[in-house]
Amino acid sequence: MAYRILEKEEIAPSVHRMVVDAPDVAKAAKAGQFIILRINELGERIPLTIADFEKEKGTVTVIFQEMGKTTKQLAKLSAGESLEDFVGPLGTPSDIRKLGTIILVGGGIGVAPLYPQAISYTEAGNRVISVIGARNKDLLILEDEMRKASSELYIATDDGSKGHHGFVTDIMKKILDSGEKVVRVVIIGPPIMMKVGAGVASPYDVEILVSLNSIMVDGTGMCGGCRVTVGGKTRFTCVDGPEFDARKVDFIELMNKLAMYRGEEIIAAEKYEEECRCGLH
Ligand code: FAD
Ligand code: FES
Ligand code: MG
Questions:
Q1: Residue 113: CB within 6 Å of ligand 1?
Q2: Hey, which of 19, 87, 115, 171 has its CA 20 to 30 A from 30?
Q3: Which ligand sits closest to the CA of 62?
Q4: CATH architecture of the domain covering 94-209
Q5: pLDDT tens-digit profile of 128-174?
Q6: Domain boundaries in the chain?
Q7: Residue 162 burial (CB < 10 Å; 0-12/13-18/19+)?
């Protein structure tokens, strides 16, 4: 079965938003879950978070950053074209209920998975303080959407071109220091940002959750590719996660595993770009 692409736009340099006709996925989707797609029969499977969904229309939105071969190939597709597979929703949905004040911290493409969470936490009656950031203002995504979905929104950029000049975690610390009772912090972004953020928030009396992006193949608990260590125990990110207690995650192991296939990934991307230059794609 093919899944039709209904909309496709570049929302920041090399960051794309794609709306896909996938009624079965849309019907069952909840914040915190993801899909695994395959562009064609020969393509590899890649996981992407469900950034938005509309049950009535049967549509699912993903937001992805061009990283290597598959995401570069995905970026070339247009509305009207189709994907071979679009499997989901996968993973355990975020545990969203009325808790009180929540801080949502997102870096780079990590703001995409935070967006449905901001909507759901707000709908559940929480006060949602969102802190989003990027390297510079052009790379910042979903600012208007996050502002609408949150009670308060703060922005940080590494180069100071918008909002606070520095890291999202600086703002998170200021809020935690302000005396406001915060029940939970959710941090989503590059592994190093989640590791640093978890370290900053750890001394405070607050629950800290991170969403892990370990390497996935089947996404259903069968292959073991997504193994992570949490609290000294082996967990499968695809079925036990992707969200885990940040204080217990072995981030160093995760970062080493993510870099494990770097050589092959570089070769695949270079070969694909060469084929593009030769007009093969
Ligand atoms: P490659 O050159 O193959 O890889 C670049 C880097 O991506 C690798 O070094 C590795 O860190 C990671 N990666 C490669 N293959 C996989 C794989 N099979 N599974 C997981 N990571 C991989 N990215 C987004 O842009 N938007 C999202 O919403 C998003 N959600 C994700 C949700 C989950 C649960 C997971 C596990 C990952 C998510 N990612 C998301 C990351 C995305 O899957 C990778 O960027 C993508 O697989 C890279 O593929 P590539 O061939 O373009 O790059
Ligand atoms: Fe295969 Fe999780 S991706 S077990
Ligand atoms: Mg790849």
A1: yes
A2: 171
A3: 1
A4: 3-Layer(aba) Sandwich (3.40)
A5: 999 999 999 999 999 999 999 999 999 999 999 999 999 999 999 99
A6: 3-90, 94-209, 212-281
A7: middle
